[in-house]
Design goal:
144 residues, alpha/beta, 5-stranded parallel beta sheet, 7 helices, 5 strands, globular
């Protein structure tokens, strides 16, 4: 199976919380994991905020940052290019979607024909993806 992960789901690999077990099982069965070029930056931002909020300590931050950088060697990263930029602007006009969400969704949509499922937890982003006829897997919801 080929998956595209949004940061809202992928971060659950690093921060154990509701949905983490589902994310881990999806990653185990994945043949290819696609992510946007911005996903690594967003993941680092999340763990830095956790450090700032004292939810994790400096050692945890360093460890998680190293894990993120290591894992990104194995993900297929969709570069921010003219196709993604153009699609993101269309999505902003169409949905008044947030900037980073527009880049995430645009990155997914330029690879749509190669991806089996979009893995995300962000409700708004999931809503927009469904409007674009994307199959979504939300790790926070029970399987039907």
């Amino acid at each position: 199976m080929i998956f595209y992960f949004d940061t809202s789901a992928l971060i659950k690999k690093y921060i154990k919380e509701h949905g983490s077990e589902v994310v881990d099982s999806i990653l185990e069965k994945a043949d290819i994991v696609y992510v946007s070029k911005i996903t690594k930056i967003e993941c680092i931002s999340v763990i830095k905020r956790l450090l700032h909020d004292r939810a994790i300590n400096k050692a945890d931050y360093k460890y998680l940052k190293k894990e993120i950088f290591t894992d990104f060697n194995y993900f297929s990263v969709i570069e921010f290019n003219e196709a993604v930029e153009s699609k993101a602007m269309i999505l902003i006009d169409k949905y008044q979607i947030k900037l980073l969400d527009s880049i995430q969704l645009a990155s997914l949509l330029v690879m749509k024909d190669k991806i089996n499922e979009f893995v995300a937890c962000d409700i708004k982003l999931i809503e927009y993806a469904k409007k674009e006829n994307v199959t979504v897997n939300n790790p926070l919801l029970p399987k039907k």
